[in-house]
Specification:
Its EC number is 2.4.1.18. Keywords: Carbohydrate metabolism, Glycogen biosynthesis, Glycogen metabolism, Glycosyltransferase, Transferase. It comes from Anaerostipes hadrus. This protein is α/β, with parallel strands linked by helices. Among the domains are: 110 residues, Immunoglobulin-like (Sandwich), CATH 2.60.40; 118 residues, Immunoglobulin-like, CATH 2.60.40.1180; 33 residues, no CATH class. Helix content is 30%, strand content 21%. It contains 20 helices and 30 strands. The chain has an 8-stranded parallel barrel. A 6-stranded antiparallel β-sheet has the order 22-23-24-30-26-27. A hairpin with a 4-residue loop joins strand 15 and strand 16. Helix 5 runs parallel beside helix 6, helix 8 runs parallel beside helix 10 and helix 14 packs parallel to helix 16. The chain is elongated and about 115 Å long. It starts with 6 loop residues before the first helix and ends with a helix.
Length: 744
């Protein structure tokens, strides 16, 4: 950390260009002077002082010195790690407030709100190799299966005196579980300090401190380090859209709205009761960008998921007419927020190679994942596909009888699948507040619900886009998420169906990671091909996923077939582009997964069959006949079979070949006669050769025999004569007729 305040750093902060403002602001130990330096931004305050246990919370004991820009600083001797402190701020409005440090690295556990003096110990990281490989691990053509987690309720201590496990304990339980289930990433719901448990961390008061609910910053270091050693990437939920009105937080920090807007039509969010950041202030941009950078720099996280991006982008988000101020041109886009998001993404992605930035953006705002080189691009790596989530859940909640009339809900996502880089989320937001758990969203009785959810998950895993599933959804917990109780782990131990479903999700992840066809071309239309898109009457979809070709690498193909009805379709024809052999690699009806064991064929070879056509002539195509089981999904590996040209095709070419040969015959005959005449003249000019040959050696019948080189000419001519097409017999005609009937 900086020993002294650098004026250049202050300049960057004041111009919105700071990326490491945490090195200047907050509380830092100074080795040279053996003091702790405090620095805070309060441009409109009348006075600021540091108070704490060390001075009996006396505002007069340690007054801070401010400059013309409202930067207050002081050095204090004799402090130790863990001491409590706050800023006593006499505001512009004349009110004195006790404020937590906006840049505090650690704080008291709620309901207490004081900041803590905290110096990072020399934690020995051992994840260098993982960090060096992050760019490759998190490339767009790599698998990404994310497990979304709420640390406080994933598992909870059974002892009454303990409320939560700490970061270290959670890591030691979580890492083996993620390995068993095959997840590549874990996404932690907000762990920046927050006062109210039921906000789940989405109303932040400490943008630079991990919440003390689960332990110390060093404990959190341990958790990240161990996850990296296990090959698991870590994404943090991060909230730069709004902040709460709590007295000790950012609101009215110096008696004015330095972090939000003075006009409540710009500075408040009525639906949430919170305040909106003022991105037009350079210092606010520096504060927020440095917060995200802090977790990447200091805690080695691999990505952030930015909550409520829509609330940032639209001035009227969640507001009624008269509750917001439109732009001068009447539009509703928050251009200052757009500028902030572009700056944020550029800072994180250029400083940390392979770092992920993910937008939770629920509208059709364009170019969210386009690079900032594009004047309209926001620069995110991924965007949550909220449309996919809403459409598929709507479809699965329907009585299967009505799904054929809503077939578009299950296929519409492919119309825009490549407009952004998408993650397909079934997140915490879908299983709270009376929305029901994932399993309870499925239509039908007990067994049908499980079969339906297996089908939905199988469809999602094969669909283009990275994957995200909230905890509890992997073993089909029946109750929705309860934010004060741990998950119902007993279901796996006591109920076979939940245990089988748990194994099914692990198998999906295993297949997903092992088959590049399921992830390499998520952003490229070349990686997807419909086989059956519009069979609404059967509520069946089928498509092929493909991996990259090139460098001598053979393209792999996976066929996914989903039956979204409780009906079995026997010998169902699935059209395929070429003659192929299919080998099954997944069947959701397997007994091991909770199915009834009545499964589709293990191996299938395609046949040439007649398929429906709008034209008058019959259309023939290769197709696989599969017995599709009720509410099921099957994956097949496709092996294309090389075929020779069909006889009927060759016969169709014969008339043209005959016409060409007939047209060329006169010219060939003339050339042949000319060459024969030349041979005769050559023999007549050399009688001495004939005289030297005895009667026995050369009978008279051979005296006109051409020379050796002329024999070649004659032979070539003969071969050409043989190429002339022969007249087809009645037997040949009968054979073609029989073949045609056979095809029909």
């Amino acid at each position: 950390m900086n020993e002294t305040i650098n004026r250049e750093d202050l300049y960057l902060f004041q111009t919105g260009k700071a990326r490491q403002a945490y090195l200047t602001f907050g509380c830092h130990y100074q080795k040279k002077t053996k003091t702790h330096r405090f620095t805070v931004w309060a441009p409109n305050a009348k006075s600021v002082s540091v108070v704490g246990d060390f001075n009996f919370w006396n505002p007069l004991a340690h007054p801070m010195k401010g400059d013309k820009d409202g930067i207050y600083t002081i050095e204090i001797e004799g402090l130790k790690k863990g001491d409590l402190y706050k800023y006593h701020v006499e505001g512009y409005d004349g009110i004195c407030r006790y404020k937590s440090d906006p840049f505090a690295f650690y704080a008291e556990c709620r309901p207490d709100t004081a900041s803590k003096v905290w110096d990072f110990d020399d934690f020995k990281w051992s994840d260098k190799r993982f960090i060096n490989q992050r760019k490759k691990r998190q490339a767009l053509d790599q698998p990404m299966s994310i497990y979304e987690l709420h640390l406080g309720t994933w598992r909870m201590p059974q002892e009454e005196e303990r409320e939560f496990y700490n970061y270290r304990e959670i890591a030691d339980m979580l890492i083996p579980y993620l390995g068993e289930m095959g997840y590549t990433h874990v996404e932690l719901m907000p762990i920046t300090e927050y006062p109210y448990d039921l906000s789940w961390g989405y109303q932040v008061t400490g943008y630079y401190g991990v919440t003390s609910r689960y332990g110390t910053p060093e404990d959190f270091n341990y958790m990240i380090n161990e996850l990296h050693k296990a090959g698991i990437s870590v994404i943090l939920d991060w909230v730069p859209a709004h902040f709460p009105r709590d007295e000790h937080g950012l609101a009215m920090f110096d008696g004015t709205h330095i972090y939000d807007h003075e006009d409540p039509r710009k500075g408040s969010q009525p639906d949430w009761g919170t305040l909106l950041f003022n991105y037009g202030k350079p210092e606010v941009q520096s504060f927020l960008i440095s917060s995200a950078m802090f977790f990447a720099d200091v805690y080695h996280i691999d990505g952030i998921r930015i909550d409520a991006v829509s609330a940032m982008l639209y001035l009227d988000f969640g507001k009624q007419e008269g509750e917001y101020v439109p732009n001068e041109d009447g539009t509703n886009i928050n251009y200052e927020a757009v500028d902030f998001l572009r700056n944020l993404n550029e800072a994180l992605r250029t400083t940390h190679e392979g770092f992920l930035t993910i937008a939770e953006e629920s509208t059709a705002y364009p170019k969210v994942t386009s690079d900032v080189d594009d004047p309209e691009g926001l620069g995110f790596v991924y965007k949550w596909n909220m449309g996919y989530m809403h459409d598929t859940l709507y479809y699965m909640e329907l009585d299967p009888l009505y799904r054929k009339d809503n077939h578009g809900a299950i296929i519409f996502s492919m119309d825009y699948a490549y407009s952004e880089n998408y993650i397909l989320p079934y997140s915490h937001d879908e299983v709270v507040h009376g929305k029901g758990s994932m399993i309870n969203k499925m239509y039908g009785a007990y067994d049908e619900k499980f079969a339906s959810l297996r089908t939905l998950y199988g469809f999602t895993m094969a669909h283009p886009g990275k994957k995200l599933l909230f905890m509890g959804g992997e073993f089909a917990q029946f109750v929705e998420w309860r934010d004060k109780e741990q998950l119902d782990w007993f279901l796996i131990d006591q109920y076979e169906m939940h245990d089988s479903f748990h194994k099914y999700v692990a198998k999906l992840n295993e297949i997903y990671k092992s088959e590049p066809a399921l992830y390499e071309l998520d952003q490229d239309p070349a990686g997807f091909e419909w086989c059956l898109q519009r069979d609404a009457d059967h509520s069946v979809v089928a498509f092929i996923r493909k991996n990259k070709k090139g460098r001598g690498r053979k393209q792999q193909q996976i066929l996914c077939v989903c039956n979204f009805t409780p009906m079995e379709w026997d010998k169902y024809k699935v059209p395929l582009p070429k003659k192929s052999k299919l080998t099954k690699i997944l069947d959701s009806s397997e007994l091991d997964f909770g199915g009834d064991g009545d499964v589709s064929e293990s191996k299938v070879s395609t046949k040439r069959v007649k398929v429906p056509s709008e034209g008058k002539k019959a259309v023939y195509q290769q197709a696989a006949e599969i017995s599709l089981k009720p509410l099921s999904v099957v994956y097949y590996k496709i092996e294309e079979v090389e075929t020779k040209p069909r006889k009927s095709v060759a016969k169709k070419a014969e008339p043209a070949k005959k016409a060409t040969a007939k047209k060329a015959e006169p010219a060939k005959k003339a050339a042949q006669e000319k060459k024969t005449e030349a041979v005769k003249k050559t023999v007549e000019k050399k009688p001495e050769v004939t005289k030297k040959v005895t009667k026995e050696e050369a009978p008279e019948t051979k005296k006109d025999t051409p020379k050796k080189e002329d024999i070649k000419v004659t032979k070539q001519t003969t071969e050409k004569e043989e190429e002339q097409p022969k007249k087809r017999t009645s037997k040949t005609r009968r054979t073609k007729k029989n073949n045609d009937q056979g095809v029909k």
